[in-house]
Each structure stands twice: as structure tokens, then as C-alpha cells.
Amino acid sequence: MAPLARFSARRVAAIAHRLPDRPARAAIIRSGLSVQGGIDALAAAEQIQTVLDVRPELLTDEHWPQLQRLVLTLAADVHEVQRGIRQRKVAAPSLIPLATDWISGLPAADLHETHHGNLLTPDITTTTSAIDKIIVQDLAWVVSALLQLLELRRGIPAEGHLAALPAMLKYGVGSPAACYASSIGIHNRATATTLAANCPYPESTFRQFLDWLSQLATEEITTLIDPDSARLLIRSTERRSPRAAQAAILSGNRTFTCPLRGIRHSGNDAYLAQLPAGTPPRPRPRPRQ
Q1: Of the candidates 286, 280, 250, 246, the residue with the CA atom closest to the CA atom of residue 266
Q2: N or C: which end of the chain has fewer CB within 10 A?
Q3: CA 56 – CA 50 distance, rounded (Å)
Q4: CA 135 to CA 142: how far, in whole Å?
Q5: How far is CA 222 from the centre of its chain?
């Protein structure tokens, strides 16, 4: 622990020497950025604040593409992102168009086809490696830190698409609801986007999104997404809310899917699989030993 304590003390001292502003210094330390990266991020946050003071309409959904490009452009100049660009030996000017198309959901093959010439990446493996390192890791991390510093300067937290931008970079999807879907295990980006598009709440919270999923019948889920993702949602969402499960059972006109304990170990799984749909179960409790 002693070497770690000495390293931490030197890092805090270096930040304090270069940045007397105590709240900003604390925010940079919490972000985990380097001293130079934190100072770069703080400068970027101050530039964004200056632009928003002049053009507050950028915070509306209509102007979100412009604000997204501004944030990504400034974040790309932060030390940690520039270091990733050098490590992967890609052309820096191609990063923002690549990140924009990644968020829009463009498949990996299309991303390579569109950007490999400007990225200077010879094959799709190199392109996807650059996306994973520079966009999914470094850029998402830096934008998250930048938003923390922006909140410090503005006095209010980011909302909507701006707040979700780090998650969009991490998951490669273009809306908060699609980020929610990705965060619960929907790894297919197109599937997550489809679920988001069908959510009835225009600007849903994570809780509203989960509540909506928990109220979907099995038939509705299977018509929305691919079978593998549907099985995941059926297992993870219909049982999430006991009230939703009760409503599905009592209504008598919806299908409710859940696993049964003790079937596999008792050897009855093959027998049950042969029963026709609609056969009423007659479960018997296991005798106490």
C-alpha cells in the first residue's frame, strides 16, 4: 500500500500545483484522468459552457447532432484519447466521423468499409480494435469526466441525450432507451435500437423502460426482437415485477413464461416437453425429509 499511497500523494500534489480550483481538482481526481487529461477536460468543459451560454438551443433534441459533435470534438483533444490514437496508430481527423457512425448503429463491416481509408486500418480486425480502445473505452471515459466538470461549472447535471452520451459511446447506440436495453444484456445493437423505438415513453427513465418491458406479453416480445434476445427478456423482465406477473396471470388472456424449479433434477423435463400447450399443471410439493 505504501507505493500506492506515495503515487496518490504525488498525483494530488501535481494537480494542486497546476489547478488551484479545489472543486475542479476534486472532480478530476474522481474521474481517474491524468493531470494533463483532467486539465484538458476542464478546458473542454469550459468551452462547452461558453457555447451553451450563447446558444442554449443546443440542449434541445432538434439540435442534438450539433451538440454531440461539439462534445466529441473537444473530448477527442483530451490527453487520454490522443494517447489511444497514437497507440493504435490511426488518423486523428477520422475519429469523430467514426464515433458518430458507431453511435448511429452502423454495423462493424460497414464502419470498416466507410472509414478504413481515413483511419489507415488495413483490415476489419484493426478497425474494430480501434473502436474498442479509442471510442468504447477512452472516449466514453473522457466524455463522462467532461460531463462531471460541465456539471460543476453549470451547477446542474446533464440530462437526456447529453447525459447518455458516454453510454452511447460504450454500447454503440443512439438513444438513452437503447442504452437501457444494452445495459440489461441486449448486446445486439440493432435489437437494442428496435426496443428503444417501440418504447411508448418519449424520454423514458431507466425505471420506466424496465416497467414497460415487464408489462409486455411473451407474444409481444417475440414479435419485436430476435428469438435469443426474446428469451433473455422473457426470463429477465416478466418476473421483474410481481404485480405485472399477477396481472398477466389473472387476466387470462396473456402468456406468462417462467422457469419451474426441480424439473431437471427430478427427470421430468423430457416428459413435460412432450405435453401439449395448455395442459394444466398439477404440481406436488416435495415431501419434507
Answers
A1: 286
A2: C
A3: 10
A4: 10
A5: 23
246/230 Cα distance (integer angstroms): 21
The mean pLDDT of the chain is: 84
Coil, strand or helix at 45: helix
Q: Could you identify the residue written with the cell 406477473?
A: 245
Phi, psi angle pair for 200, to nearest 5°? -75, -10
Q: How far is CA 68 from its chain centroid? A: 16
What 3-state DSSP class applies to 237?
helix
Task: Please choose, from the candidates 227, 199, 202, the residue with its C-alpha nearest in 3D space to the C-alpha of residue 214.
Answer: 199
Q: DSSP label at 225?
A: S
Q: Tens of pLDDT along 134-165?
A: 999 999 999 999 999 999 888 888 899 999 99
Q: Tell me: the pLDDT tens digits for 10-22?
A: 766 776 666 767 7
Q: What is the pLDDT of residues 26-76, one digit of tens each?
A: 888 788 888 889 889 999 999 999 999 999 999 998 999 999 999 999 999
On whether the CB atoms of residues 31 and 144 are closer than 8 A, the answer is yes
Amino acid in position 188:
N
* DSSP letter, residue 183: H
C-alpha cell at 124: 476489419
C-alpha cell at position 32 = 481517474
Distance between CA atoms of residues 151 and 153, nearest Å: 5
Q: Which pLDDT does position 239 carry in this prediction?
A: 47
Q: How would residue 5 be classed by pLDDT, with cut points 50, 70 and 90?
A: confident
